[in-house]
Amino acid sequence: MSTIRLTMAQAVARFLAAQKTDIDGEVLPLFAGVWGIFGHGNVAGMGEALHGVRERLPTYRAHNEQGMAHAAIAFAKASRRRRMMACTTSIGPGATNMVTAAAVAHVNRLPVLLLPGDVFANRRPDPVLQQIESFSDGTISANDCFKPVSRYFDRIARPEQIIPALQRAMAVLTDPAECGPVTLALCQDTQAEAYDYPESFFAEKVWTPRRIRPDADELAKAAALIRSAKKPFIVAGGGVLYSGAEQALADFATKHGIAVGETQAGKSSLAHDHPACLGSVGVTGTGAANALAEEADVVIAVGTRLQDFTTGSWALFKDPSRRIVGLNVQGFDAMKHSAQPIVADARVGLEELSQALQGWKAPEAWTAKARDEKTRWFEASARYTDPTNVELPSDAQVIGAVQRTSSPSDVVVCAAGGLPGELHKHWKASAPLGYHLEYGYSCMGYEIAGGLGVKMADPNREVIVMVGDGSYLMMNSELATSVMLGRKLTVVLLDNRGYGCINRLQRATGGESFNNLLQHTNHVTLPDIDFAAHAASLGAQAMKVKSIGELEDALKKARGAERSTLIVIDTDPLIATDAGGHWWDVAVPEVSVRSEVTAARKDYENALASQRVGD
Predict the structure, then answer these.
(1) Boundaries of each Thiamine pyrophosphate enzyme central domain copy (predicted)?
(2) In a domain, 503, yes or no
(3) What are phi and psi of 160, to 5 degrees?
(4) Would you say residue 125 lies in a domain?
(5) Mean per-residue pLDDT for 164-193?
């Protein structure tokens, strides 16, 4: 057997550079690069190794470890999980900074390879700088925090252990069902140790997606269930986009006359003007989609986890005899809530399910209802998003301005707070992947870093990041990275002076405004933050506008800019779209001295009666 002597870190770098992916006949590197912030736990080992392969596997420097991992995750999502990135950090805070991002990837079923430095395997210098010591277990390090948020975890204490570890990592990262974050904790002394590795370990490997075909029995049972339906309804999740199943979904919905509601991850599966597309479903759903969901007797859930925002905390589907068909590549999701499963790839599953339903179509009256509800919703949505001259516009009015100045190929990026709900209802997605929301983990701070990852995945599309002042203050450093890398973003910052979304929720559950908006916090002086000046100090072009009209002018200028632009506009923290939507289970205190809480508790108990538990 022919071998080559390398350090463990050099073996990692060389192996990653040899992994390829075939996308529509074009062979590309599977790993588009490595994000790295170096410290004593990885600079000598991984730093030296990555320098050696920098022409084949580029290394990108970020400003925050969580931010760079968010960028890597967004890159994978925008690449339909066909390409990915790795992230390396030092031991200690650099490593644990990535734990939140690992949770984002885990929830959203997105591939990212995390390579944090770890303690010395030989333990001679223990405790080393930044080492967490367990008083009861000598095998534990800070990196054990990654275990519950990793699909696969390994600690590499000997150089030869990296061979099976990387092979297992690739099996997880490229598996459509098991896909998620992989953490390989690299003991810092082991990174520098040499071993005679088989040359075959570094042979080029081309990965293609596995498309699992449905089981014949599951398919037949699901088809029979759908044939019995009088009011079928489709919920399209992120799995539709990961699979590239948009056309299959459009064909299925058209052929069988079934309307489609989209989750946050599934939005842009259908163009907004497709006859079957009723837009968002659930807590932040359109009036059209929710009207059909409430009456549906069979719900066809395609590529969705059916989380509580999608199901209205399991109170949305009101037909007491309704059944679910779960079409999902992961059996764990396909079988939720006593669903009839079809464990299969979304595209193949829809195609074969359509064949099994040959000649069947939903009743015309049901399809006509969907058309009517969609017309009514579009009319309602326009009232919320139309231009205005008010001093403090709503989020929806800002969204309307962004929409009017956008192109069909643009990508809008957002994450936590009130904006995702307003975007879910009102944004008109025209092209697949044109709507990029992180709402599985709802992680504040994802927005700008995520926008950078999207731009790296598809540099030919305009990327518009919408972010609140709260999320911007949590993480804005990758705005500087976007400037440094020449990856232009347009960032629209809506300043409502606090956490407006949670303030509204606080009041809706009977509470007094407290500790959310800046004016209601414990303070000596209220900050008057100049976000434009801050963004300019990071190297971005920046401006503050005073009206919707000025915002539209600024957005047009930003489109022609050569580097990232941040546009700030003050907004009203109290206004949200009250059309559409659905109840969400947020527990209200049973006892309180506040009469408002007591009243909210009664409403809460009434709403609980609509929940479907255990089915």
Answers:
(1) 219-353
(2) yes
(3) -75, -15
(4) yes
(5) 98
